[in-house]
Design goal:
36% of the residues lie in helices and 21% in strands. It is an alpha/beta fold. The protein has two domains: 111 residues, Urease, subunit C, domain 1, CATH 2.30.40; 287 residues, Metal-dependent hydrolases (TIM Barrel, Alpha-Beta Barrel), CATH 3.20.20.140. The strands form two sheets. Strands 1, 2, 3, 4, 5, 14, 15 and 16 form an eight-stranded mixed β-sheet that branches. Helix 6 links the parallel strand 8 and strand 9. Helix 4 crosses helix 5 and helix 6 runs parallel beside helix 7. The protein is globular and about 70 Å long. The relative contact order is 0.17. It binds N-(iminomethyl)-L-glutamic acid and fe (iii) ion (FE). The site of fe (iii) ion has 5 residues, from loops.
Amino acid sequence: MSTLITNISALLHIDLQGRKWKRGRELGEFPISRNAWLLLEDDIIKDFGNMEEGLPENFDEKMDAGGGMILPTWVDSHTHLVYAGTREDEFSQRLHGLSYAEIAARGGGILNSVKKLRQASEDELYDVAAARLEEVMQLGTGAIEIKSGYGLNTESEIKMLKVARRLGENYPLPVKTTFLGAHAFPEKFKDDHQGYVRLISEEMLPEIAAQNLADYVDVFCEEGYFSVDEMLQILEVAQKLNIKSKLHLNQFNSLDSIEKATQHDALSVDHLEVMSEKDKQLLGKSDTVATLLPGCSLFLEIPFAPARDLIQQNAIVALATDYNPGSAPSGNMNLMVSLACIKMKMTPEEAISAATLNGAAALELSDRIGSIEKGKKANFILTPPLSSPSFIPYNFGHNHVQKVFINGKAI
Ligand code: NIG
Ligand code: FE
């Protein structure tokens, strides 16, 4: 079935050259068709053009965009959407002066969520995660990555990944899953780190691979969490199983993890709040995506990642929410785009590109989604009439998502 959408004030293509990503200065290149029409054939973008130059004659259905803008749905390439319970008690503790690290040292933080997750059944987890997913889809997210990492034993990590896989089967958007068994050391292994790395390498990863539950592997490489050597041990096992990595790096400290990650062809390195000059240069020369998470910086009051320097160095910069109960309890990509502009000095064009095409690249989906180009999936956001694309991040905290289309259908 074909659908013609008319009266689009601006069609924000993001790219028209079939690029996998836009890096460095290209990030701000922003092709727009003004006063446009868009033709869909089932779930695919078939064609587009200018209203004054004439409309296609053959179509089954017609829809008037009412002078709104159309842009690709957001790609949230880093979330911890499957979790049990919430942590606003820790939020209050932080407001009373305790730091994220102090709360973790008292048994809070990730291990707090682990306790709650282990008690929840797979169905209970599914229901709360599905509600979160539906909410972020209404906010314009049209593809998402979901990590495990609150189970920290084989059974519970598998339970989380099964929930994420079920979400991917039951909802129309692409869902990629990532195994993050190396998120923290569970209580049982607090004095036996090698024992836990062995459990991950010899039991969890092979079992998860055998059941095809994870598209990627992740490690939280940080002081007090997993060392660079431990990360490498896990990456080597993953490589043998043909599983690529997306890694939590440089959130609080710059170790030499970025160099190692790029040598191992990590698909993305995420966080990057604390970066040395060398780290930035390495990302400028590699095809590893630099995924920035401004919601985490806002919520934890830690530095914002040096987006301008990374763009200047020619890195591939993406934006994601990090949606999780501890460090970033928001899955709103619209807010991330605003924060990227306000706090990281990205231009609106760069931020919107980083939250669409480059997010898709961080999930190996940019051949299908992330831009409005012929042959790509008809996944897009329709806004009300707005004065310009910049209005989206500028009018922060407001909802500019009028309708969300996934696979050519309004959700
Ligand atoms: O991406 N940094 C590690 N993991 C999460 C936070 C997890 C939590 O606090 O529950 C993050 O920020
Ligand atoms: Fe995270």
